[in-house]
Fold each of these.
Amino acid sequence: MEIIPVIEVRSGKSTRSTFVRSDQPNILRDDVLLIAKRWKDDGATRIHIHDVDGARVGMPQNRDQVRDVVRRIGLPVSYSGGVRTPEVMERVLGWGVDRVIADSETTLNLACKPTIQRLGDKVALELRPFNGKIPRPGGPPGAWLDVLNFLRETNMLHCWSQIVCRVSLGDGGLAAPGGEDIGKFIQQARVPVSVFAKYRTWDELRQVQKFGPAAIVIHEALYDGTLNLPDLINWAANIGKEAPRTSDIKPWMPGYRQGASAPTAASTPAAPRPSVPAPPIRPVSQRPPIPPLPPFPPKR
């Protein structure tokens, strides 16, 4: 499982600021390139750039910032925001990004199908489910549908090599992950699913991880310091592995020697208990008489 940090870009700058230089710990920066460099230094293997302006107008906008990150950071970059036609997919890939994430409106454009099949892993689909459903692409407000059934009916599900599930509040905002809905979505999709949600605690991360997503895409918690990227990467790399034992405490059990594992109760026989003879039992006739109780003191 991969941990992917997100940089949301609006008007050429990051929508959130963070500390990017150790020699100036109290200065916040919103420069996209500096933030991408920080995520690389923290161990990220991929960066996701979301173009807020492009998602709003339906066409990619912040090309220069994306190209700078691709050329100067040297990490694979995923891009989302306003990708809805085959021509836009080809254009954004020409910027040097490793993967283009298309909007859900792409499912209505059957002309995209040959391009999606040809590009393969370089294209993914972004869906924004709310309680297991999404707004009908191109439909009237308030029209909701089961997205997986819709993709099967249009024969578009098998075209995508990966799906990015952006957990939504219903109005476009990012929501906390819902355990059972996310689990059903991952199991029914039958393609790798990356889960993009508003993670705030380790319990939420573990709740999503148990369903086996391809990646966890995380944004806000990295900027406000709620979660730490090196810790997240280390956690993802050691899922299912036993934590290393670093304790040097020697066990008290006998038979222990340096460099050997602690002996168990089955391997170490218990020491024999010393035999102590029981005191003899005398018959009642040979026991000493019980002394009488002293008389009560006289009343005053």
Amino acid sequence: MKTVFYAVLTILALTLPAGAAERRIALVVGNANYQTGSLPTPANDAGLVAQTLQAAGFDVTGARDLDQESLRRAFRDFRDKSSSSGPDTVAYIYLSGYGVQLEGENYFVPVDARIENDTSVSAEALRLSDYLRPLSALHLKAAVIVLNLARANPFARSGNPLTGGLALVEAEPGTLVAFNAAPGTIAPDESGPIPPTRRPLRKFPAKADCRSMTHLHASACASIRSPMAGRCLGMPPSCKLRFTSWSAHRMRRRLR
């Protein structure tokens, strides 16, 4: 389960029914230039997602290569923006870079992090639940969280090894959470600037019906079939979206 999650969820963002009072806001962060070495794709991924969301009517706040202080500020500012936008707000967060999990919690790693061992994770990286739970508490119309973070990382070379990938999280009502790899696994290495697994994103329409969703899903599946050994998220013939362990059905009811 990889980029097809992005395809399905971004299509969902593009096709949310927009009411007269609805406001759409997004936070898009691509961290690439880490002290341990640069990643080839997050910056381009973030730019592509930001353009797609802007075309769909989102007010996008974009940022690249944030250190810890800047990243904390970006999350706080986005929460404040979400709060002041009112209950008819659709919020979309896209994070790309290194992520780690520790004791069932997921962390987003800023570019200035020095994670020498597992005990330094909580001090050097941002625990995502500290920012996503307050966002859920605002009871917005909907929230979509996309975590492109499950990569083989160069951290914690001494002491206890870090568990690979990201931890599965149970989404709050009205929220969808997606990973770039199945929980507890890492995504295959990618080459830049835009690898085949991201290319379907460039074809997203401003609005999508069942036919275009099926076509885009098929394109995304075809692009990841080889590196993912056929592990592609299937879309039912009815074009209804299914997300195991996530509260998509509760979000749909809220959007009706």
